[in-house]
UniProtKB/TrEMBL annotation:
<feature type="domain" description="FAS1">
    <location>
        <begin position="83"/>
        <end position="181"/>
    </location>
</feature>
<dbReference type="InterPro" id="IPR036378">
    <property type="entry name" value="FAS1_dom_sf"/>
</dbReference>
<protein>
    <recommendedName>
        <fullName>FAS1 domain-containing protein</fullName>
    </recommendedName>
</protein>
<dbReference type="InterPro" id="IPR052806">
    <property type="entry name" value="Fasciclin-like_AGP"/>
</dbReference>
<comment type="similarity">
    <text>Belongs to the fasciclin-like AGP family.</text>
</comment>
<dbReference type="InterPro" id="IPR000782">
    <property type="entry name" value="FAS1_domain"/>
</dbReference>
<keyword id="KW-0325">Glycoprotein</keyword>
<feature type="domain" description="FAS1">
    <location>
        <begin position="253"/>
        <end position="351"/>
    </location>
</feature>
<keyword id="KW-0654">Proteoglycan</keyword>
Length: 352
């Protein structure tokens, strides 16, 4: 939060809350809303919102805690059961230039009309789409790891699972918003992660269909277009990569660099380097640009994710980096099961 004082932050949260209350009381509900209204009144003294606000505040999600306390109807009045993904304070603090109506939509986009504790969320397959309170908008469970009990929604890590567990309300804390926050935005852009019929939101329970990755074609394209060292490196470890993929892939994204560090085919580091440059799903430049700040990208190394970084909401949706590296040649080659992007330099291996 930099040099801003605590009083500054409190005033910011209260101003946003008052703006939300004004928007909520002046705007009628959409006529074609697909959410069933309930008859239970929600007041600022509702024990549910008070207890949930207390739990949020104890985990330092003070902005959402305040909003839930003074304007709980945004989250709780539309469904008998609710799951809220609470955005961390630092991400919300940078939204003061955005209109209140958009911020209300942002919170609705992070609220599900169903009860989904972490135990149930981990049972759902990767790729499951979940309806939100924002009409015709869904979010996707983009990653699930039952062993470590970690999950991501729209490529954003759930950092505080089950922060609050009530009979009708569940709250999880997340590291950032599910959509990029850019200046002059007046609506949440439709994510390419969940492309369903615009007249309904669904929970997709079927596993994604695995495909056979055309590795030979990938290596040919790399070697004939100026990425010979990278192609040689990939070919050297390809058998091991294929053998180690216990879960069938639905697609891959190759982050190719023309100046791959010089490593012999026998070097154990070569295998680690190559896995770090291959994402475990097919993501075009448009897909990557639509992801929010701090979104995590799964590589073929299950223990080493990459991260989308933006300099702030002032940047355009096209301005981002992947773990400190720029995409200099997006969508160079693409097929149904792979896409190849050229990057500025080799992704560094994290230090042990």
């Amino acid at each position: 939060m930099g040099c801003c004082s605590l009083d500054c932050f409190v005033y910011f949260v209260l101003s946003i809350a008052l703006a939300f209350m004004a928007v909520s009381t002046t705007l009628p509900p959409p006529p074609d809303s697909n959410i069933t209204k309930t008859n239970r009144p929600i007041t600022h003294h509702d024990p549910l919102s008070l207890n949930a606000s207390k739990a949020l505040r104890q985990s330092n999600f003070k902005a959402i805690a305040t909003l839930l306390h003074v304007s709980s109807e945004i989250f709780l009045s539309s469904s008998p059961s609710t799951t809220l993904f609470a955005i961390d304070d630092s991400s919300l603090f940078n939204t003061s230039s955005l209109p209140p109506l958009f911020l209300k939509q942002l919170l609705q986009y992070h609220t599900l009309p169903l009860r989904l504790p972490m135990e149930e969320l981990l049972k759902k397959p990767q790729g499951t789409c979940l309806p939100t309170l924002l009409r015709h908008q869904s979010v996707q469970i983009s990653s699930v790891d039952k062993e470590s009990r970690r999950a991501e929604v729209n490529h954003v890590m759930i950092s505080h699972p089950d922060m609050f567990l009530g009979d009708s309300l569940v709250i999880h804390g997340v590291l950032g918003p599910f959509s990029p926050l850019l200046p002059h935005m007046d609506h949440i852009p439709r994510s390419s992660l969940c492309q369903s019929d615009s007249n309904k939101t669904i929970i997709e329970e079927e596993e994604a269909v695995p495909v056979k990755i055309d590795w030979t074609r990938i290596i040919q394209l790399l070697s004939s277009n100026g990425f010979v060292p990278f192609a040689i490196g990939l070919h050297s470890v390809l058998n091991r990569i294929i053998a180690d993929q216990h879960k069938n892939l639905t697609g891959v994204t190759i982050l190719a660099t023309p100046n791959l560090v010089s490593l012999s085919s026998a070097s154990p580091l070569l295998y680690e380097v190559m896995r770090r440059h291959i994402l475990a799903q097919r993501l075009t430049k448009k897909d990557l640009a639509s992801m929010p700040d701090k979104a995590l990208l799964k590589t073929l190394d299950p223990y080493q994710d990459l991260i989308i970084t933006r300099r702030g909401i002032v940047n355009s949706s096209q301005c981002f980096m992947i773990s400190g590296v720029e995409i200099v040649a997006p969508d160079m080659f693409s097929s149904n099961n792979f896409v190849i992007h050229g990057i500025s330099h080799t992704l560094e291996l994290p230090r042990a």
